[in-house]
Design a protein that fits this description.
The protein is an all-alpha fold and about 240 residues long. It has two domains: about 140 residues; about 70 residues. α2 packs antiparallel against α4. It is flat, with a radius of gyration of 30 Å.
Length: about 240
């Protein structure tokens, strides 16, 4: 739907070139490794030119993003205007005017945030990946295979860890509810324990409930620490 707008097409084209210049910059940074100072001076000049073009592409792309959002949002608002104008008296009054105002003030900006940001990010990620694979292929085709395998691993492992993390969070929540229930029970019956000189029973039960809850929390924290280390290792790889 978005690609039917000319401003969006131009923005997408700019994003593609920005991704290309970004990968090119990564590539030319390797020119810093040289055998003599003359080559270093020359290569620094090349790097500076590519860096300038990359930064310029960022500026132009952001301007085009803003301009495309401007035109599309104006179009959406005019469409809402047209829908309202075409309504009958009863149709218009079937909804409070403040609810219709919310469409202009809240709904359209929310759609912009959800649609535009995700769409442009997806395009940039896609073409960055394509240019990176092309650059790796220029080095050696095996690098592409390594990159694809690494990408697959980095896609699967975080999702497996995230599933386990969700289970740990549920366990902690359940343990918290059990601990809250146990302490509430002890506090409600404290007068009875006090009258029967059974305060030692209060201390023992409270301590056992606290240890049971703390152990679940500690187990969850240990997994979180492991997950953090594992994700950092994946990022490094």
């Amino acid at each position: 739907m978005l690609m039917r707008y000319r401003s969006v097409k131009i923005t997408v084209l700019s994003i593609i070139f920005q991704a290309l210049f970004q990968v090119t910059l990564y590539y030319v940074l390797g020119f810093i490794v040289v055998d003599n100072i003359n080559d270093l001076k020359q290569n620094i000049g090349i790097i500076a030119i590519v860096l300038f073009i990359y930064l310029l592409s960022i500026y132009i792309t952001n301007i085009l993003k803003a301009r495309s959002e401007y035109y599309v949002i104006q179009d959406w608002r005019q469409k809402v205007d047209k829908i309202i104008v075409d309504m009958s008296y009863s149709e218009y009054n079937s909804m409070n005017y403040s609810e219709r105002l919310s469409i202009y003030i809240n709904d359209i900006p929310k759609i912009r945030e959800l649609v535009f940001d995700k769409y442009f990010s997806m395009v940039q990620y896609l073409f960055s990946s394509i240019w990176i694979l092309v650059a790796l292929y220029k080095i050696h085709y095996s690098m592409v295979l390594v990159a694809l395998a690494s990408g697959l691993i980095m896609y699967i492992i975080p999702r497996v860890l995230q599933k386990r993390l969700s289970e740990e969070i549920k366990n902690v929540q359940k343990a918290k509810e059990q601990y809250t229930s146990k302490i509430r029970e002890l506090l409600e019956g404290f007068n009875t324990l006090l009258e029967n000189s059974a305060l030692l029973k209060f201390l023992n039960k409270s301590r056992r409930a606290s240890y049971a809850y703390a152990e679940i929390q500690l187990k969850s924290d240990k997994f979180t620490a492991f997950m953090s280390a594992a994700l950092n290792a994946l990022n490094f790889i």
